[in-house]
Amino acid sequence: MSQLNSINELFVSELANVSNFTELFNLKAKFLGKKSLLAEQMAKLGTSTSEEKKQLGLEINIVREYILKSLNEKQKKLEELELAQKLNAQSIDITLPGRGFTRGKIHPITNTINELKNIFVRMGFSHVEGPEIEDDWHNFTALNINESHPARQMHDTFYMQNIEGLLRTHTSGVQIRYMEKNQPPIRIISSGRVYRSDYDATHTPMFHQLEGLVIGEEINFGHLKGCIAQFLKEFFRVKELPMRWRSSYFPFTEPSAEIDMKCNRSTKKEIRIGEGNDWLEIMGCGMVHERVLKNVAIDTMKCQGFAFGVGIERLTMLKHNIPDLRTLFEGDMRWHEIYGF
Questions:
Q1: What sequence ranges are listed for the domain Aminoacyl-transfer RNA synthetases class-II family profile (predicted)?
Q2: Torsion angle, alpha carbons of 23, 27, 28, 29, to 10
Q3: The CATH homologous superfamily of the domain defined by 108-339
Q4: I need a labelling partner for 176 at 20 to 30 A (CA). Which of 48, 204, 269, 294 fits?
Q5: CA separation for the pair 54, 232 (Å, rounded)
Protein backbone atom coordinates (compact mmCIF):
# COMPACT_ATOMS: atom_id res chain seq x y z
CA MET A 1 0.00 0.00 0.00
CA SER A 2 2.93 2.26 0.67
CA GLN A 3 3.97 2.06 -2.99
CA LEU A 4 0.42 2.86 -4.16
CA ASN A 5 0.37 5.83 -1.78
CA SER A 6 3.62 7.03 -3.27
CA ILE A 7 2.19 6.65 -6.79
CA ASN A 8 -0.91 8.58 -5.75
CA GLU A 9 1.10 11.40 -4.17
CA LEU A 10 3.35 11.61 -7.22
CA PHE A 11 0.30 11.82 -9.48
CA VAL A 12 -1.24 14.63 -7.43
CA SER A 13 2.04 16.54 -7.51
CA GLU A 14 2.50 16.25 -11.27
CA LEU A 15 -1.18 16.89 -12.05
CA ALA A 16 -0.91 20.27 -10.34
CA ASN A 17 1.75 21.31 -12.87
CA VAL A 18 -0.25 20.28 -15.98
CA SER A 19 -1.15 23.38 -18.06
CA ASN A 20 -2.21 21.97 -21.45
CA PHE A 21 -3.70 18.92 -23.16
CA THR A 22 -0.32 17.53 -24.26
CA GLU A 23 0.97 17.43 -20.70
CA LEU A 24 -2.31 15.88 -19.59
CA PHE A 25 -2.03 13.15 -22.24
CA ASN A 26 1.55 12.37 -21.20
CA LEU A 27 0.55 12.22 -17.53
CA LYS A 28 -2.25 9.78 -18.31
CA ALA A 29 0.16 7.51 -20.20
CA LYS A 30 2.63 7.64 -17.30
CA PHE A 31 0.12 6.49 -14.69
CA LEU A 32 -2.43 4.45 -16.66
CA GLY A 33 -0.58 3.23 -19.77
CA LYS A 34 0.73 -0.28 -20.50
CA LYS A 35 4.12 0.59 -19.04
CA SER A 36 2.82 2.88 -16.30
CA LEU A 37 3.61 2.81 -12.59
CA LEU A 38 0.18 1.40 -11.89
CA ALA A 39 0.69 -1.36 -14.47
CA GLU A 40 3.80 -2.47 -12.59
CA GLN A 41 1.70 -2.90 -9.46
CA MET A 42 -0.90 -4.90 -11.36
CA ALA A 43 1.85 -7.25 -12.61
CA LYS A 44 2.53 -8.28 -9.00
CA LEU A 45 -0.92 -9.83 -8.80
CA GLY A 46 0.39 -12.86 -10.70
CA THR A 47 2.81 -13.84 -7.93
CA SER A 48 0.55 -13.03 -4.98
CA THR A 49 -1.61 -15.35 -2.91
CA SER A 50 -5.35 -15.24 -3.28
CA GLU A 51 -5.74 -13.09 -0.15
CA GLU A 52 -3.00 -10.71 -1.28
CA LYS A 53 -4.56 -10.51 -4.76
CA LYS A 54 -7.90 -9.55 -3.28
CA GLN A 55 -6.44 -6.81 -1.08
CA LEU A 56 -3.95 -5.50 -3.63
CA GLY A 57 -6.51 -5.51 -6.44
CA LEU A 58 -8.92 -3.47 -4.32
CA GLU A 59 -6.23 -0.90 -3.51
CA ILE A 60 -5.11 -0.66 -7.15
CA ASN A 61 -8.72 -0.03 -8.28
CA ILE A 62 -9.15 2.73 -5.70
CA VAL A 63 -6.01 4.50 -6.90
CA ARG A 64 -6.90 3.94 -10.56
CA GLU A 65 -10.42 5.39 -10.14
CA TYR A 66 -9.01 8.40 -8.33
CA ILE A 67 -6.49 9.01 -11.14
CA LEU A 68 -9.21 8.70 -13.82
CA LYS A 69 -11.54 11.05 -11.96
CA SER A 70 -8.78 13.60 -11.45
CA LEU A 71 -7.72 13.41 -15.10
CA ASN A 72 -11.32 13.99 -16.28
CA GLU A 73 -11.74 16.96 -13.98
CA LYS A 74 -8.45 18.43 -15.19
CA GLN A 75 -9.49 17.93 -18.81
CA LYS A 76 -12.77 19.75 -18.18
CA LYS A 77 -10.94 22.67 -16.57
CA LEU A 78 -8.53 22.89 -19.51
CA GLU A 79 -11.47 22.90 -21.96
CA GLU A 80 -13.18 25.69 -20.04
CA LEU A 81 -9.95 27.67 -19.95
CA GLU A 82 -9.46 27.24 -23.70
CA LEU A 83 -13.04 28.37 -24.42
CA ALA A 84 -12.64 31.41 -22.19
CA GLN A 85 -9.46 32.37 -24.02
CA LYS A 86 -11.19 32.07 -27.42
CA LEU A 87 -14.17 34.13 -26.27
CA ASN A 88 -11.89 36.77 -24.84
CA ALA A 89 -9.94 36.97 -28.08
CA GLN A 90 -13.16 37.31 -30.11
CA SER A 91 -15.00 39.61 -27.72
CA ILE A 92 -16.46 42.95 -28.84
CA ASP A 93 -15.52 46.04 -26.92
CA ILE A 94 -18.90 47.71 -26.46
CA THR A 95 -17.18 50.92 -25.37
CA LEU A 96 -15.77 51.43 -28.88
CA PRO A 97 -17.75 53.81 -31.14
CA GLY A 98 -20.05 51.95 -33.54
CA ARG A 99 -20.21 52.27 -37.30
CA GLY A 100 -22.89 54.75 -38.28
CA PHE A 101 -25.46 53.97 -40.96
CA THR A 102 -25.20 55.85 -44.24
CA ARG A 103 -27.86 58.54 -44.18
CA GLY A 104 -30.00 58.94 -47.25
CA LYS A 105 -30.53 62.27 -48.98
CA ILE A 106 -33.64 64.00 -50.26
CA HIS A 107 -33.87 63.97 -54.05
CA PRO A 108 -33.58 67.44 -55.65
CA ILE A 109 -37.06 67.07 -57.20
CA THR A 110 -38.62 66.27 -53.82
CA ASN A 111 -36.74 69.16 -52.24
CA THR A 112 -38.02 71.57 -54.89
CA ILE A 113 -41.63 70.36 -54.50
CA ASN A 114 -41.45 70.85 -50.75
CA GLU A 115 -39.94 74.31 -51.19
CA LEU A 116 -42.63 75.33 -53.69
CA LYS A 117 -45.40 74.13 -51.40
CA ASN A 118 -43.98 76.13 -48.51
CA ILE A 119 -43.73 79.29 -50.61
CA PHE A 120 -47.30 79.11 -51.89
CA VAL A 121 -48.76 78.13 -48.53
CA ARG A 122 -47.21 81.30 -47.10
CA MET A 123 -48.90 83.18 -49.95
CA GLY A 124 -52.29 81.79 -48.92
CA PHE A 125 -52.61 78.85 -51.33
CA SER A 126 -53.82 75.34 -50.50
CA HIS A 127 -52.26 72.24 -52.04
CA VAL A 128 -54.58 69.72 -53.72
CA GLU A 129 -53.91 66.44 -55.52
CA GLY A 130 -55.64 64.32 -58.13
CA PRO A 131 -55.35 61.03 -60.07
CA GLU A 132 -52.52 60.42 -62.53
CA ILE A 133 -54.82 58.33 -64.75
CA GLU A 134 -57.29 60.88 -66.10
CA ASP A 135 -60.32 60.85 -68.38
CA ASP A 136 -60.76 62.87 -71.55
CA TRP A 137 -63.09 65.39 -69.92
CA HIS A 138 -60.82 66.51 -67.10
CA ASN A 139 -57.59 66.37 -69.11
CA PHE A 140 -58.79 67.94 -72.37
CA THR A 141 -62.44 68.86 -72.97
CA ALA A 142 -63.14 70.81 -69.78
CA LEU A 143 -59.94 72.77 -70.40
CA ASN A 144 -61.16 73.97 -73.81
CA ILE A 145 -58.78 71.65 -75.69
CA ASN A 146 -60.75 70.67 -78.79
CA GLU A 147 -60.66 67.29 -80.50
CA SER A 148 -58.32 68.45 -83.26
CA HIS A 149 -55.69 69.77 -80.88
CA PRO A 150 -52.24 68.11 -81.41
CA ALA A 151 -51.93 67.29 -77.69
CA ARG A 152 -54.67 64.68 -78.08
CA GLN A 153 -52.68 62.67 -80.62
CA MET A 154 -51.12 59.30 -79.79
CA HIS A 155 -47.58 60.56 -80.39
CA ASP A 156 -47.98 63.13 -77.60
CA THR A 157 -50.26 61.39 -75.07
CA PHE A 158 -50.12 57.94 -73.44
CA TYR A 159 -53.56 56.31 -73.75
CA MET A 160 -54.52 53.26 -71.67
CA GLN A 161 -55.03 50.01 -73.59
CA ASN A 162 -57.36 47.94 -71.41
CA ILE A 163 -59.37 50.72 -69.76
CA GLU A 164 -60.68 54.09 -70.81
CA GLY A 165 -58.34 56.84 -69.80
CA LEU A 166 -54.91 58.32 -70.29
CA LEU A 167 -51.86 59.33 -68.31
CA ARG A 168 -52.44 62.99 -67.50
CA THR A 169 -50.44 65.41 -69.61
CA HIS A 170 -50.66 68.19 -67.00
CA THR A 171 -52.03 68.75 -63.50
CA SER A 172 -54.76 71.08 -64.78
CA GLY A 173 -57.25 68.24 -64.41
CA VAL A 174 -56.86 68.58 -60.65
CA GLN A 175 -58.05 72.19 -60.92
CA ILE A 176 -61.13 71.13 -62.91
CA ARG A 177 -62.00 68.50 -60.31
CA TYR A 178 -61.59 71.03 -57.52
CA MET A 179 -63.75 73.68 -59.23
CA GLU A 180 -66.49 71.11 -59.86
CA LYS A 181 -66.85 70.66 -56.10
CA ASN A 182 -65.93 74.11 -54.78
CA GLN A 183 -67.15 77.62 -55.51
CA PRO A 184 -64.99 80.77 -55.41
CA PRO A 185 -62.99 82.17 -53.78
CA ILE A 186 -60.40 79.58 -54.86
CA ARG A 187 -56.65 79.74 -54.35
CA ILE A 188 -54.94 76.39 -54.94
CA ILE A 189 -51.80 74.78 -56.29
CA SER A 190 -51.50 71.24 -57.61
CA SER A 191 -48.29 69.33 -58.24
CA GLY A 192 -47.26 65.86 -59.28
CA ARG A 193 -46.12 63.57 -62.07
CA VAL A 194 -47.33 64.15 -65.64
CA TYR A 195 -46.63 62.18 -68.81
CA ARG A 196 -45.85 63.05 -72.42
CA SER A 197 -44.29 61.04 -75.21
CA ASP A 198 -40.92 62.77 -75.43
CA TYR A 199 -37.32 61.96 -74.45
CA ASP A 200 -34.11 63.95 -74.92
CA ALA A 201 -31.68 66.06 -72.88
CA THR A 202 -34.47 68.48 -71.91
CA HIS A 203 -37.54 66.19 -71.99
CA THR A 204 -38.50 62.91 -70.34
CA PRO A 205 -41.69 60.81 -70.74
CA MET A 206 -42.48 61.48 -67.08
CA PHE A 207 -41.83 64.77 -65.36
CA HIS A 208 -43.21 66.92 -62.54
CA GLN A 209 -45.35 69.99 -62.85
CA LEU A 210 -46.83 72.58 -60.53
CA GLU A 211 -49.87 74.62 -61.47
CA GLY A 212 -51.67 77.37 -59.61
CA LEU A 213 -55.23 78.67 -59.82
CA VAL A 214 -56.89 81.74 -58.32
CA ILE A 215 -60.62 82.42 -58.87
CA GLY A 216 -62.60 85.21 -57.28
CA GLU A 217 -64.30 88.54 -57.75
CA GLU A 218 -62.29 91.39 -59.28
CA ILE A 219 -59.23 89.20 -59.96
CA ASN A 220 -57.14 90.76 -62.73
CA PHE A 221 -53.88 90.40 -64.64
CA GLY A 222 -52.10 92.64 -62.16
CA HIS A 223 -52.76 90.10 -59.42
CA LEU A 224 -51.24 87.41 -61.65
CA LYS A 225 -48.09 89.47 -62.24
CA GLY A 226 -47.67 90.21 -58.55
CA CYS A 227 -48.16 86.56 -57.60
CA ILE A 228 -45.61 85.27 -60.13
CA ALA A 229 -43.05 87.94 -59.24
CA GLN A 230 -43.31 87.16 -55.54
CA PHE A 231 -43.03 83.42 -56.15
CA LEU A 232 -39.99 83.57 -58.45
CA LYS A 233 -38.07 86.05 -56.28
CA GLU A 234 -38.63 83.95 -53.20
CA PHE A 235 -37.74 80.68 -54.93
CA PHE A 236 -34.52 81.96 -56.51
CA ARG A 237 -33.77 84.09 -53.42
CA VAL A 238 -33.19 87.35 -55.22
CA LYS A 239 -34.41 90.81 -54.21
CA GLU A 240 -35.00 92.00 -57.76
CA LEU A 241 -35.94 89.89 -60.77
CA PRO A 242 -36.58 91.66 -64.09
CA MET A 243 -39.23 89.75 -66.05
CA ARG A 244 -40.52 89.92 -69.61
CA TRP A 245 -44.11 88.95 -70.42
CA ARG A 246 -44.66 87.67 -73.95
CA SER A 247 -48.06 87.12 -75.49
CA SER A 248 -48.73 83.43 -76.08
CA TYR A 249 -51.55 80.93 -76.59
CA PHE A 250 -52.98 78.28 -74.29
CA PRO A 251 -56.49 76.85 -74.87
CA PHE A 252 -57.47 77.26 -71.23
CA THR A 253 -56.38 80.90 -70.70
CA GLU A 254 -57.15 84.15 -72.50
CA PRO A 255 -55.11 86.29 -72.59
CA SER A 256 -52.11 83.99 -72.23
CA ALA A 257 -48.47 84.81 -71.62
CA GLU A 258 -45.07 83.22 -71.30
CA ILE A 259 -42.63 84.65 -68.81
CA ASP A 260 -38.93 85.23 -69.32
CA MET A 261 -36.60 86.29 -66.53
CA LYS A 262 -33.26 87.97 -66.73
CA CYS A 263 -30.14 85.90 -66.21
CA ASN A 264 -26.43 85.76 -66.87
CA ARG A 265 -25.24 82.95 -69.16
CA SER A 266 -21.64 84.12 -69.41
CA THR A 267 -20.40 80.89 -67.83
CA LYS A 268 -21.33 77.41 -69.08
CA LYS A 269 -21.32 75.88 -65.62
CA GLU A 270 -23.74 78.30 -63.97
CA ILE A 271 -26.72 80.48 -64.86
CA ARG A 272 -27.07 83.46 -62.55
CA ILE A 273 -30.72 84.39 -62.08
CA GLY A 274 -31.71 88.06 -61.83
CA GLU A 275 -28.54 89.53 -63.32
CA GLY A 276 -26.91 89.93 -66.71
CA ASN A 277 -28.47 90.74 -70.08
CA ASP A 278 -29.81 87.35 -71.18
CA TRP A 279 -33.43 86.20 -71.04
CA LEU A 280 -34.62 82.75 -70.03
CA GLU A 281 -38.12 81.32 -70.50
CA ILE A 282 -39.41 80.01 -67.19
CA MET A 283 -43.21 79.43 -67.20
CA GLY A 284 -46.61 80.03 -68.77
CA CYS A 285 -49.72 81.70 -67.40
CA GLY A 286 -52.88 83.62 -68.23
CA MET A 287 -56.40 84.57 -67.24
CA VAL A 288 -58.67 81.53 -67.05
CA HIS A 289 -60.73 81.16 -70.23
CA GLU A 290 -64.41 81.98 -69.85
CA ARG A 291 -65.36 78.63 -71.40
CA VAL A 292 -63.37 76.73 -68.74
CA LEU A 293 -65.23 78.52 -65.95
CA LYS A 294 -68.58 77.78 -67.59
CA ASN A 295 -67.64 74.08 -67.86
CA VAL A 296 -67.44 73.93 -64.06
CA ALA A 297 -70.55 76.07 -63.44
CA ILE A 298 -68.79 79.19 -62.17
CA ASP A 299 -70.62 82.45 -62.85
CA THR A 300 -68.37 84.37 -65.25
CA MET A 301 -70.34 87.57 -64.68
CA LYS A 302 -69.16 87.65 -61.07
CA CYS A 303 -65.85 85.81 -61.05
CA GLN A 304 -62.72 85.47 -63.06
CA GLY A 305 -59.25 84.26 -62.29
CA PHE A 306 -55.75 83.40 -63.39
CA ALA A 307 -53.73 80.21 -63.74
CA PHE A 308 -50.05 79.42 -64.15
CA GLY A 309 -47.87 76.37 -64.64
CA VAL A 310 -44.18 75.59 -64.29
CA GLY A 311 -41.98 72.54 -64.77
CA ILE A 312 -40.46 71.45 -61.48
CA GLU A 313 -37.47 69.83 -63.19
CA ARG A 314 -36.72 73.10 -64.95
CA LEU A 315 -36.77 75.04 -61.70
CA THR A 316 -34.56 72.40 -60.06
CA MET A 317 -32.01 72.43 -62.87
CA LEU A 318 -31.78 76.22 -62.90
CA LYS A 319 -31.47 76.61 -59.16
CA HIS A 320 -28.90 73.85 -58.66
CA ASN A 321 -27.04 74.05 -62.01
CA ILE A 322 -27.94 70.54 -63.19
CA PRO A 323 -27.01 70.34 -66.90
CA ASP A 324 -28.93 67.24 -68.08
CA LEU A 325 -32.57 66.56 -67.19
CA ARG A 326 -32.14 62.78 -67.60
CA THR A 327 -29.70 62.54 -64.69
CA LEU A 328 -32.57 63.37 -62.33
CA PHE A 329 -34.12 59.96 -63.03
CA GLU A 330 -31.17 57.63 -63.63
CA GLY A 331 -30.73 56.65 -59.97
CA ASP A 332 -26.95 57.12 -59.89
CA MET A 333 -26.04 57.25 -56.19
CA ARG A 334 -22.81 59.11 -56.95
CA TRP A 335 -24.84 61.86 -58.59
CA HIS A 336 -27.28 61.81 -55.67
CA GLU A 337 -24.43 62.34 -53.20
CA ILE A 338 -23.57 65.57 -55.03
CA TYR A 339 -27.04 67.00 -55.66
CA GLY A 340 -29.10 65.43 -52.85
CA PHE A 341 -30.18 67.29 -49.72
A1: 116-330
A2: 100
A3: Bira Bifunctional Protein; Domain 2 (3.30.930.10)
A4: 204
A5: 113
